[in-house]
Amino acid sequence: MVTERYLSPKKFAAALGVSESSVKRWADEGKIESSRTEGGHRRISRAAAYRYIRANRLPLADPAAIGIEPEDGDEPGKHADALIDAVKKGDERRFISVLTARYLAGENVATLFDGPVADGLHQIGDLWRHGPEGIHIEHRSTEVCIQGLSVLRSFLSEPAADAPLAIGCSPSGDPYRVASLMASIIVAEAGWRDRNLGADLPIESLVSVMETERPRLLWLSFTSDAASEAFLRKRSPFEEKARELQTVVVAGGRAFPRKLLKGEGCGYHFLSSMEALDAFARALRVGTPSIGTAARVESEKSIELGPVFRGTGNNA
Ligand code: B12
Q1: How many other β-carbons are positioned within 10 Å of the β-carbon of residue 244?
Q2: What does residue 156 show for φ and ψ, rounded to 5 degrees?
Q3: Which residue lies with its CA nearest to atom 12 of ligand 1?
Q4: Would you say 95 and 87 are in contact if contact means Cβ atoms under 8 Å apart?
Q5: Which mutation among 138, 141, 167 tests ligand 1's pocket best, with the greatest number of atoms within 8 A of CB?
């Protein structure tokens, strides 16, 4: 598995099939983020190199030169099948290799998450009914996804220091970790500072982190029916805090309690996919009026949009 964080212009040039002097010129012109060693040698972070390849849709003449496993075949769907298969088999190396190749090829990250990554986990969803091995397969596949998504997260550029903050989690009693990690990567890619608080977060600590961190956007992922029922019973301190701080709350997941779309609440916006979150987070980031339409279309069941939405939120 590839490890070195930095690439020499020579290695990067070999991977791209261009001359070393071209890469050095691009670095000096600032086209590729680069730095200098104490000895004055140029070095390019692997993440910056990956972003450059992705942004310019550059073909790799020799992927192995930078430790990327060449992709086998290019038929449509081949990559999705490879990802699904890697998730189901708990094959971390292959999952990371194919996910990295899809990222370099410029594939939409949210589409990858809603598609092959989620499908891979959905397809093992019933194994637990057939015995204890089903549970360890679910654990293994979940860990593979967590590792792979964390590697992909490391390719993203750091958001601006003054970028708005988005935090999120799965509520108390909900052990599911993948969807919340996906959401954090999607908002980070949309230019937010992201803070994933993971699974099973008690509502009291959610309220306290809202008080201290004052996020502009907050995501909730509901997968466990029992945890959703518990959230419905205990939600009022959270809703009071969200109203007080004018936090924009988005929620999704198979167990999202529809009741949240009725009554006072705090203006939950139900988004059914990571693609929807991507569009929502990008529009809210720039506070365009069209966000209203986008959200209303996506969550026609949601409560009328509050003033927050028109960019009066805090922590911007
Ligand atoms: C992995 C897994 C586990 C793992 C979880 C590991 C972990 N820590 O994450 C473990 C082994 C712990 C587990 C345990 C159990 N599980 Co389980 N599990 C799954 C499985 C296979 C995948 C879940 C997952 O991560 N999916 C990947 C995510 C990304 O996909 P997704 O949830 O569909 O999310 C997509 C959208 O909904 C949306 N989305 C989701 N959240 C959000 C949030 C926002 C803000 C947005 C915008 C979008 C969004 O975007 C995502 C990408 O498209 C599902 C099968 C399934 N169909 O999902 C069963 C499943 C959820 N489990 C199930 C069951 C029954 C159980 C057990 C009771 C089994 C048992 N007897 O042990 C226990 C209960 C645990 C508990 N305390 O609740 C049932 C239903 C659960 C329920 N009714 O509450 C399912 C549906 C399987 C089935 N078909 O029966 N499970």
Answers
A1: 11
A2: -75, 150
A3: 175
A4: yes
A5: 138
Q: In the predicted model, what is the mean pLDDT of the chain?
A: 88
What's the rounded mean pLDDT across residues 221-245? 96
Instruction: State how far the Cα of 250 lies from the Cα of 187, in Å rounded to an integer.
Output: 12
- Given ligand 1 and candidates 178, 223, 254, which is best to mutate, with the most ligand atoms within 8 Å of its CB? 223
Q: Are the C-beta atoms of 114 and 275 separated by less than 8 Å?
A: yes
Cβ-defined contacts of 227-232 (< 8 Å, 24+): 227/170, 227/171, 227/172, 227/173, 227/174, 227/200, 227/255, 228/171, 228/174, 228/255, 228/256, 228/257, 229/257, 230/171, 230/172, 230/173, 231/171, 231/172, 231/203, 231/257, 232/257, 232/259, 232/260
Nearest-angstrom CA–CA distance, 68 and 72: 12
Q: How many CB atoms lie within 10 A of CB 234?
A: 15
Which residues sit with their C-beta closer than 6 Å to ligand 1?
Answer: 113-114, 118, 121-122, 124-126, 128, 135, 138-139, 142, 175-179, 182-183, 199, 219, 221, 223-226, 250-255, 271, 273-274, 276-277
Token pair in block for residue 30: 């600032």
Domains of the chain: 6-66 (1.10.1660), 76-154 (1.10.1240), 160-301 (3.40.50.280)
- Chain position carrying tokens 């730095």: 35
Average pLDDT on 229-254 reads: 96
DSSP state of 114: I
Nearest to 148 by CA among 87, 194, 192: 87
Higher per-residue pLDDT: 222 or 294: 222
Question: 42-45 and 165-169: which strand pairing?
Answer: unpaired
